[in-house]
Every structure is written in C-alpha cells, then in structure tokens.
Q: What sequence folds into this?
C-alpha cells in the first residue's frame, strides 16, 4: 500500500531524514514511532502530499508521488482520510458541516444523501447523532477525536492516517478509541497508519511498526521483532522498567482472557 525508499528530508541546513525505508502492507495497522523531532509527522505529511522529500521515492497505492499527475493526485486524495493530532476542525462550522466538506468538494450527490452519510459516519465514530449540530468548541477532547475520525471516514477511504490519536485522552478513552480503530480495520479492511508513543496501542492494536532514530529507521516489524533490536533508542524506550512492567502486565491479561474464552 505504501513504500518509502531512501527518503531524505531537509529543512534549511537541518537534516530530518537521511535514507528512511519502510513498507506498509494492505489491511494492517502500521505504527511510526520515534522521539520528538525525529520526523514522524513529516513522514505522514509526505505520504499525504503536504510535503516532499529532497530525494528518495514515496509510493502510495501504486502511485509514485514524485511524478504523479495533478489528475491522479486529486484521485488519490479521495482514497485516504486523515486525523490530525489536534483534530484540525474548522471552528466556524458545525461538526456535520466539517464532515460534509469532502463530499461537497469531490462529489455531486444530493444534500439529502450527504446528510445521511454524515449521520452514518458520526454513528460509526461512536458519537450520538445530535453531535452533528454542535461546534468544535462545544466538544470534549475525546469527542473532537471521534468527530475528526468521522470526517476522515466520510469518503470510505482505503487508507487512514492517524497522528497521535490517543494523545490527550484519559486511559479509558484511549483504549476505547483503540478498540474502535481495530473494529473499523477488521470490518472495512482499511489500512491504518498510526503515529504514536502509546505502549498500549503498540502492544494491542498495531501489527507492525518502524522506529525512527538517528534520522533513519533503526527497527521495523512486529513488537516481538522490534524488541530483538539492540539499538540504544529501542533499548531505552522498550526495555526500561516501566515498559517491562507494562508488557508483563499486558501478557498476563492476555493469558487470562484466553483462559476465560
């Protein structure tokens, strides 16, 4: 679904990526992890054509973004949805009108059908129908995440990009959001790209992920595969006392659930 080869990114004299490589398979939930400033969000913006690397290639759904035509770029944009870290909803529009924007931009369906689609997506995101009448300023942080997710799903995308989807949520809200993403992937077969630092998300819903450090990918694979890495950043992030306790607790919980089932 997505393939990055030898991506080099610079802002002025500052090198962000220096030969980044990874691939994302169809139908998986793929994570991008790294310390602050490692260029995680920059990679996502390159995948959705908001930024371009200095060199290297980024292919999305078979299209080479270095040479894609305007017509194909417009077509490609309709095949993904994006949930930005802080929602990025237009404050002057109601939730329903925020969700409806892409339908009005890219389709010629009737206003009635538009409204029905919006109601369906609001429900899919786990929100009551009346939320559509509210404005972003009237929503809690968790509701903004879900409303933004509804907007990202409105065009029935093949790809879903999530930038720190559980940041700012309480533990229960974060786990419920993870569960929702997993259900959407399993039901609709969406490929999901997640930027996250959340150990629960990494251990419970992510199939594979890459770790950025030293301006490149230093580990990629399943959690078990990444844990085999001896890179200092991987050691620091995953093998500290807190992480060890977390994964041990998670393993015990999974075993208990298996016994119950």
A:
């Amino acid at each position: 679904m997505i393939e990055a080869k030898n991506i080099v990114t610079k802002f002025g004299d500052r090198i962000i990526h220096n030969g980044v490589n990874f691939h994302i398979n169809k139908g998986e939930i793929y994570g991008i992890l790294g310390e602050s400033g490692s260029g995680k969000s920059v990679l996502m913006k390159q995948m959705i054509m908001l930024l371009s690397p200095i060199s290297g290639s980024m292919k999305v759904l078979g299209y080479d973004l270095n040479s894609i035509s305007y017509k194909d770029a417009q077509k490609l944009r309709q095949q993904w949805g994006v949930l930005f870290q802080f929602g990025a909803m237009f404050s002057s529009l109601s939730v329903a009108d925020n969700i409806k924007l892409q339908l009005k931009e890219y389709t010629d369906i009737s206003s009635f059908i538009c409204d029905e689609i919006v109601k369906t997506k609001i429900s899919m995101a786990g929100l009551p129908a009346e939320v559509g009448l509210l404005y972003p300023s009237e929503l809690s942080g968790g509701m903004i995440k879900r409303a933004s997710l509804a907007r990202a799903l409105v065009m029935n995308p093949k790809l879903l990009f999530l930038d720190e989807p559980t940041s700012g949520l309480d533990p229960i809200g974060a786990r419920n959001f993870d569960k929702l993403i997993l259900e959407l992937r399993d039901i609709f077969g969406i490929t999901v790209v997640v930027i996250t630092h959340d150990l629960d998300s990494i251990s419970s819903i992510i199939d594979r992920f890459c770790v950025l450090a030293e301006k490149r990918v230093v580990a990629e694979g399943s959690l078990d595969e990444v844990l085999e890495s001896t890179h200092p950043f991987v050691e620091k992030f995953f093998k500290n006392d807190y992480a060890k306790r977390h994964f041990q607790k998670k393993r015990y919980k999974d075993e208990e659930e298996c016994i119950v089932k």
